[in-house]
Write a structure and sequence with these properties.
It is built from 6 helices and no strands. The protein is an all-alpha fold and 97 residues long. It has a single domain, classed as Cytochrome Bc1 Complex, Chain D, domain 2, CATH 1.10.760. Helix 2 crosses helix 6 and helix 5 packs across helix 6. It is elongated, with a radius of gyration of 16 Å. The termini are far apart. The model has no long low-confidence stretch (mean pLDDT 89). The structure holds heme C. The site of heme C has 19 residues, from helix 2, helix 3, helix 4, helix 5 and helix 6.
């Protein structure tokens, strides 16, 4: 029984991680991503995420775009870090249905 409980909490923790943590994502985003987007569109850079027409139509496309942009930062990111930032952008700006 104990083992089962432990196992299920591990599975839950893994699932939570796969979904990403928007709070961690915001911190990473503001530190590593915003400056370059500000140079592109001004303001706080977030106009890039809300422009029309929408180029990013679902979460998979967003995750892919994040990976591409991470490459531009020249920093090595862990997949979890990309997930956090994807989660942040999805929650704050893209709000996919
Ligand atoms: C060296 C500059 C640069 C850096 C650093 C950068 N980006 Fe970008 N980003 C761009 C450019 C250029 C575009 C594309 C603009 C266009 O298509 O008009 C873009 C577009 C995007 C888009 C798509 C916006 C949309 O809805 O069309 C997302 C999402 C994004 N970046 C996320 C990130 C994230 C997350 C990071 C940090 C890991 C990051 N970017 C760092 C230059 C950068």
């Amino acid at each position: 029984m104990r083992t089962l409980l432990l196992l299920s909490s591990l599975v839950l923790a893994a699932a939570a991680q796969a979904a990403g943590d928007p709070k961690l994502g915001k911190a990473l985003h503001d530190k590593q991503c915003a400056a370059c987007h500000v140079r592109l569109v001004g303001g706080d850079g977030s106009k890039l995420y809300t422009r029309t027409p929408r180029l990013i139509k679902d979460r998979a496309a967003l995750a892919q775009r994040v990976t591409m942009c991470v490459a531009q930062t020249g920093t090595k990111w862990f997949p979890e870090e990309e997930e956090h930032v994807t989660a942040y952008l999805a929650q704050q700006f893209y709000k996919f249905k």
